[in-house]
C-alpha cells in the first residue's frame, strides 16, 4: 500500500509547540511518511522547541534576519518553500494557525497543486486588523486549504459560514493540550534560578505575557501601570513577566515595572519553563492566544489583555475573561480574582473547551480517512460542558 507523504511546515515557537505533538504522532503511523520543513521565521525560540520535542527538520530555510519585516518574511519563505516542495514532492502540506509562514506555506502549496491541511483552522475575530496580520493570515490560509482541522465546534461553524465544505472539516481539539502532557511535570526544576526561589504557597504568583503588535505604545503602558497597581495593593502578590525582546516591549516593561522587589522581569522563557510556571501560578494575564488555551487545562483563570479574542469558546466556558488594556480594568479585574474566592473557583474549575490531549491522533486519523486509507471518519472532539 502506497504511503501518504506529508510535509509539515512551521516557523515560529508557538507553531512548533503545537505541531511537534502532531509530528510525533505522524511518525508513529506506518501509512504516512512525515517530513518537517521549518522557515525559522523565529530562530532561537524555534530551536528550543525542536530540541525539547526531539524534532529534527528535514529542511531548514533559516530565513530570520535582524529587523525583518512582513515583506521580508513572505518573500524569503515563499522562494525557499518552492525549492523544498520541488524536492519533497508531498501529497499533503500541513500548516498551523495564523503566522506568515503558515499563509506562505499554503500559498506555495497551492501554486504547486499540492493539497493543504490547516491545523487550528477556523479561528476568527471577524476584524481583519485585529490581530494583525494573523486574522488575515488564517483567513487566507483557510481559503487555500483542502483539509480543515478545527479545534472546536465554534471554529467549524465559522468555516461553514464562509462556504467551506463541511465534509472537509474535522473537529479535533487543539494540539497544544497534547503538548502539555509532555512538558508539565510535578518535580520540574526551573533552569531560570529565580523561579526556584518562588514560594507558590505563601505568595500568589501572577504570570504575565504582553507583546502583541496592537498593544504596543500606550496600551502596553496602560497595562504595565495597571499591573504595578495590582502588586502595590496586594502584598502577597508576586508578578512574573517574561518580556519579549522587541525594544518596544522590553523598554516599556522595564521603565514602568523595573526595580520592584515583587516584580520579576525575565527574558522570554523556554516552552517547558513557561508551561511549568503556568502550572504553579495563581492566574494568568496575557494578550497571547496560546495561553488562553493552555492555562485553562491547568486550572488557571485567564484575563485577556485585548479588546477582542478569536477564542470565544473559553469566554463562554468561563475559563477566560476579556478585559481590554485600560489601567483601571487591569486593576479591577485582577483584584476580583484576588479577593473573590467563588469567582476564582468558578473560572479555575470550568471545563477547558480546547482539548483532551488526543488532537494529534484525531488529525492523523482524519488524514488517513481523507486519503482513503481508513473507512471510518474520526469522532469529533466535544468537551463535556
What does this structure look like?
- This is UDP-N-acetylglucosamine 2-epimerase (non-hydrolyzing).
- Residues 24-367 form the UDP-N-acetylglucosamine 2-epimerase domain.
- Belongs to the UDP-N-acetylglucosamine 2-epimerase family.
- With 385 residues, the protein is α/β, with parallel strands linked by helices.
- The chain has 2 domains: 4-174 and 355-371, Glycogen Phosphorylase B (Rossmann fold, 3-Layer(aba) Sandwich); 193-349, Glycogen Phosphorylase B (Rossmann fold, 3-Layer(aba) Sandwich).
- It is built from 16 helices and 13 strands.
- The chain is globular and about 65 Å long.
- It starts with a strand and ends in a 15-residue tail after the last helix.
- The model has no long low-confidence stretch (mean pLDDT 94).
CATH architecture of the largest domain: 3-Layer(aba) Sandwich
Low-confidence stretches: none
Mean pLDDT: 94
CATH superfamily of the largest domain: Glycogen Phosphorylase B
Amino acid at each position: 500500500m502506497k504511503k501518504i507523504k506529508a510535509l509539515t511546515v512551521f516557523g515560529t515557537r508557538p507553531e512548533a509547540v503545537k505541531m511537534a505533538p502532531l509530528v510525533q504522532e505522524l511518525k508513529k503511523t506506518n501509512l504516512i511518511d512525515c517530513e518537517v520543513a521549518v522557515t525559522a521565521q523565529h530562530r532561537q525560540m524555534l530551536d528550543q522547541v525542536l530540541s525539547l520535542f526531539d524534532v529534527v527538520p528535514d529542511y531548514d530555510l533559516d530565513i530570520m534576519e535582524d529587523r525583518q519585516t512582513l515583506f521580508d518574511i513572505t518573500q524569503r519563505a515563499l522562494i525557499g518553500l518552492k525549492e523544498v516542495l520541488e524536492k519533497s514532492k508531498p501529497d499533503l502540506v500541513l500548516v498551523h494557525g495564523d503566522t506568515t509562514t503558515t499563509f506562505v506555506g499554503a500559498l506555495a502549496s497551492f501554486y504547486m497543486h499540492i493539497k493543504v491541511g490547516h491545523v487550528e483552522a477556523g479561528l476568527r475575530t471577524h476584524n481583519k486588523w485585529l490581530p494583525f496580520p494573523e486574522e488575515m493570515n488564517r483567513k487566507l490560509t483557510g481559503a487555500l486549504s483542502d483539509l480543515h482541522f478545527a479545534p472546536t465546534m465554534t471554529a467549524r461553524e465559522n468555516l461553514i459560514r464562509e462556504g467551506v465544505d463541511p465534509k472537509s472539516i474535522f473537529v479535533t481539539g487543539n494540539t497544544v493540550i497534547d503538548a502539555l502532557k509532555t512538558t508539565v511535570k510535578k518535580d520540574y526544576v526551573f533552569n531560570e534560578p529565580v523561579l526556584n526561589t518562588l514560594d507558590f504557597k505563601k505568595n500568589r504568583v501572577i504570570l504575565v505575557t504582553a507583546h502583541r503588535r496592537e498593544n504596543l505604545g500606550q496600551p502596553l503602558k496602560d497595562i504595565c501601570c495597571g499591573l504595578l497597581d495590582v502588586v502595590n495593593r496586594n502584598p502577597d502578590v508576586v508578578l512574573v513577566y517574561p518580556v519579549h525582546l522587541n525594544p518596544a516591549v522590553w523598554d516599556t516593561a522595564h521603565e514602568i515595572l523595573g526595580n520592584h522587589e515583587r516584580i520579576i522581569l525575565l527574558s522570554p522563557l523556554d516552552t517547558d519553563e513557561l508551561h511549568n510556571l503556568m502550572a504553579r501560578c495563581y492566574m494568568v494575564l496575557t494578550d497571547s492566544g496560546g495561553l488562553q488555551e493552555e492555562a485553562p487545562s491547568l486550572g488557571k483563570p485567564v484575563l485577556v489583555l485585548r479588546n477582542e479574542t478569536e477564542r470565544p469558546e473559553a469566554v463562554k466556558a468561563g475559563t477566560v475573561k476579556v478585559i481590554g488594556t485600560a489601567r483601571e480594568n487591569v486593576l479591577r479585574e485582577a483584584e476580583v480574582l484576588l479577593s473573590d474566592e467563588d469567582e476564582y473557583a468558578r473560572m479555575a474549575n470550568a471545563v477547558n473547551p480546547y482539548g483532551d490531549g488526543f488532537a494529534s491522533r484525531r488529525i492523523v486519523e482524519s488524514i488517513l480517512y481523507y486519503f482513503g486509507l481508513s473507512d471510518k471518519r474520526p469522532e469529533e472532539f466535544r468537551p463535556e460542558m
